[in-house]
Write a structure and sequence with these properties.
The protein is α+β, with helices and mostly antiparallel strands and 171 residues long. Helices cover 42% and strands 22% of the residues. The strands form 2 sheets. Strands 4-3-7-6-5 form a 5-stranded antiparallel sheet. A hairpin with a 2-residue loop joins strand 5 (72-75) and strand 6. The N and C termini lie far apart (86 Å).
Length: 171
């Protein structure tokens, strides 16, 4: 990395060195079946958890460079999600191969939880709506029954609705 003064003139460089075995340890400790590697500009593997692959050419680079590449490749009978990140100022790439099912497992879990929350919310909403409609329509039905009884000639019937709202005034 270049160091520049306030006039943007270069006065030095910072060079960070990390041993390949340290990268290898990081790659070995990845969770699940994820495979991580570092590639140089010629797509040769510089660091990998499996030391036998170091120095070999990355076999899926042509698929990655295709403009219709969807970041999912088939290796054997399994689908893998491939992601890469360009390391600045080096021309190197950090490449990750993750089994597709492992990658979408968390997304599926979140989707299932959200679906359950929405279902419970809908049930609670439906119950509250039913209760609210019942409290509004019950006095109206009772009032309608009383009106029908009065229409038939029963003038002694009472609604027994005691409220201060519009329905109470009608009763």
């Amino acid at each position: 990395r270049t160091l520049r003064d306030s006039n943007l003139k270069i006065y030095g460089y910072v060079i960070v060195t990390i041993m390949e075995n340290k990268l290898n340890q990081v790659f070995e400790n990845l969770p699940g079946n994820e495979e991580m590697m570092l590639l140089n500009g010629d797509s040769q593997i510089l660091s990998h958890a499996n030391s036998e692959k170091i120095g070999q050419s990355f076999p899926y680079i042509e698929q990655m460079q295709d403009k219709h590449f969807s970041n999912i490749i088939k290796i054997g009978s399994h689908d893998y999600l491939i992601a890469d990140h360009q390391v600045t100022n080096t021309g190197w790439k950090l490449v990750s191969l993750t089994p597709y099912m492992q990658a979408i497992n968390k997304i599926n879990s979140i989707f299932n939880k959200m679906f359950l929350v929405q279902l419970i919310s809908f049930i609670v909403f439906f119950l509250l709506l039913t209760y609210l409609l019942q409290t509004i329509t019950k006095p109206l039905v009772r009032l309608g029954n009383v009106v029908a009884a009065v229409q038939e000639g029963n003038l002694k019937i009472r609604t027994k609705i005691n409220s201060n709202d519009e329905i109470g005034r009608l009763s």
